[in-house]
Amino acid sequence: MKKKKVIAHIHSRIKKLADAAIDRGDIESCERTSDDIYLIKRSTDLIPTTYTAVGAGTLLYLLNSLAQNTETNQ
Asked: Phi and psi at residue 72, in whole multiples of 5°?
């Protein structure tokens, strides 16, 4: 039962990070498939890149951290 809560929290956090990245223009879209794979399209990509939940979470977290660091240094 606890595992489902943790997984739901991870997907919820990824969605929040993806929405923020889309708003900033870092990515164009982030779609979760039925098998918990994420398709993330960046403006520089011709096709969406496939990520696991861990990979998507890491990429989005790093983009968010970079954006926050850039805002702090301006």
From this structure: -65, -35
- Can you give the pTM of this predicted structure? 0.84
Residue whose C-alpha is closest to residue 15's, from 35, 27, 30, 36:
30
**What pLDDT band is residue 71 in, cutting at 50, 70 and 90?**
confident
Structure tokens at 40: 């993330």
Name the nearest CA neighbour of 29 among 55, 48, 57, 51.
Answer: 48
CA distance 74 to 61: 20
How far, in Å, CA of 60 to CA of 63, rounded? 5
**Residue carrying structure tokens 């919820």:** 12
